[in-house]
Design a protein that fits this description.
This protein has 339 residues and is mainly beta. The protein has 4 helices and 22 strands.
């Protein structure tokens, strides 16, 4: 399902028009996302590129007051139901894979982590868990680092050097923190990223934490997966259609296909304000589901010759598609990370 040279060139040409379309269509409250993506017909991916609009509720055409045109700039359009899960972290009423919630040594991707305390988000104190994505090297440091989503470990009042708990503090009997790492840096914003000889804004929801003294780590290893992640993937049009996998604490190991690298979503920031998160990677689950609440932070990687594509940012209410921060955005801020 990978794009040909001609299709990749068309993708990049279509993507140039996205800022204009976002400015026009994001004024409509029912529009939740927009990007150049593989078109879906009867819930199956096709090879056709389209301007793909996400809406909170997909209606019959006869019920729509202002329908999306069937073509824009001579290219087909698609409309999918896409409502963001506003609570992307795991809570007490979410069933998780039990073994992933245990204290784990060595540290690997795909296991439960949390901040050492509640996180302040949208004016509320939240006690929740997420997924450790993967352990990596940092060339300027002799200690390994864990990589996950920023929103797994950070709220509006979080400070750097805060303790990170694995297993999740909220999955222990007495809410005890096995502090295995300290938060060293994070981003929850659009960042400038060089891609395809241009500099673009790309949403980065990612945090790195330095491993402590009392735990080991296996670089690139992910729970339940034999293969080791060996590097970072190149993010360009040719990765669209690529088969990818993730290992998360809620929905376990799932596979899917990359459908877009240019999608903009309306997301809430830590204070509850709506932001436009640009150039996110979108993944369609192979069997419908790709992720659920609690899988945030999971590493998303190619199934062949495993390379990190991005860090899972969140799920839609249906569980698919899923959005992720791209590998090149991660490297734009931490170029010294490696496997």
């Amino acid at each position: 399902m990978k794009l040909t040279n001609e299709e990749a060139a068309l993708h990049d040409k279509m993507a140039e028009k996205l800022p204009e379309l976002i400015e026009e269509y994001f004024q409509r409250p029912e529009i939740t996302s927009l990007g150049v993506a593989l078109k879906t017909i009867n819930n199956s991916l096709t090879q056709t590129l389209s301007y793909t609009f996400g809406v909170k509720k997909k209606l019959a055409l006869s019920e729509v007051t202002h329908p999306i045109p069937s073509a824009i700039f001579g290219c087909p359009t698609d409309v999918i139901e896409l409502e963001i899960d506003q609570e992307p972290l795991s809570s007490d009423d979410v069933t998780e894979v039990t073994t992933r919630n245990e204290k784990t040594d060595p540290l690997i991707g795909g296991i439960s982590i949390s901040a050492n305390g509640t996180l302040k988000k949208r004016g509320k104190e939240v006690a929740s868990s997420g997924t450790l994505g993967v352990m990596v090297h940092k060339r300027t440091d002799d200690k390994p680092y864990m990589m996950t989503c920023a929103h797994v470990l950070v709220g509006s009042s979080t400070r750097l050097d805060s303790d990170v708990c694995q297993q999740s503090k909220w999955r222990t009997t007495l809410n005890y923190c096995h502090d295995c790492a300290t938060l060293k840096d994070y981003y929850y914003e659009n960042v400038l990223v060089p891609r395809d000889f241009k500099t673009i804004n790309v949403w980065l929801d990612c945090a790195i934490a330095r491993k402590g003294e009392h735990r080991n780590a296996t670089i690139g290893k992910v729970f339940g997966v034999d293969e080791i992640i060996e590097g970072f993937a190149t993010i360009d049009a040719f990765i669209i259609g690529e088969k990818v996998r993730k290992s998360g604490i809620t929905s376990d190991i799932t596979t899917g296909n990359i459908t877009s690298i240019t999608s903009t979503l309306k997301l809430p920031d830590f204070d509850g304000n709506t932001v436009f998160a640009n150039n996110l990677i979108m993944i369609q689950g192979e069997d419908g589901l790709f992720s659920r609440s609690g899988d945030s932070g999971s590493a998303i990687f190619t199934t062949e010759n495993p390379r990190l594509v991005g860090i899972l940012g969140g799920a839609t209410l249906s569980g698919s598609p899923t959005y992720a921060s791209a590998a090149d955005a991660i490297l734009s801020k931490w170029p010294d990370l490696s496997f």
